[in-house]
Amino acid sequence: MPDLVTIVILGLAAYRAARLIATDSLTQDARAALYRWAWLDPPDGERAWSCFDKDGNDAPCPRGRVRPYVYELITCPFCIGVWMSGAAFVVWALWLGCFPNLAVSLLVVLAVAGVQSLAQALDASMTTVAD
Fold first, then answer.
1. Fewer CB within 10 A of the terminal residue: the chain, N end or C end?
2. How many CB atoms lie within 10 A of CB 122?
3. From residue 89, how far is each of 29, 34, 57, 98, 114 by CA, in Å?
4. What's the distance, CA 96 to chain centroid?
């Protein structure tokens, strides 16, 4: 079972990985390709789509039912952060050569995800204050 320092380090690593995937300019082209995979965009200058968001505003039409959810799971820093927390834990456990039982593993992943979410929320609040 990891100690508190290990959980914090894993959480910060998951935060950085989630930020890299969801918001950094380094992965901007990959996110744009993912957007094109998930949503139909009207041709330039046309407004022939009949898709609307929940408030009745024009919105891009989804390509199927699942693709927009996949897009959201990958581009949302909190969502991808949970997956990155799990990945950080698996890498840590493989490095040590031992996995705790399933219940402890899930609890550790949730704890790491909590640290990642706190770091993400702190970053978001600092960005909001700076703007």
1. C
2. 11
3. 28, 26, 41, 11, 13
4. 26
Q: Give 23-49 pLDDT, tens digit per residue.
A: 889 999 999 999 889 888 655 555 555
Q: Are the C-beta atoms of residues 105 and 98 closer than 8 Å to each other?
A: no
Choose among 95, 123, 89: nearest CA to 10: 89
Question: What is the reported pTM?
Answer: 0.74
Report the chain's C-alpha Rg in angstroms.
18
CA-closest candidate to residue 22, choices 106, 94, 83: 83
Q: How long, in residues, is the chain?
A: 131
88-109: average pLDDT: 87
- Check: CB of residue 76 under 8 Å from CB of residue 22: yes
pLDDT number for residue 71: 92
CA distance 88 to 9: 10
Cα 81 to Cα 21: distance, rounded to the nearest angstrom? 9
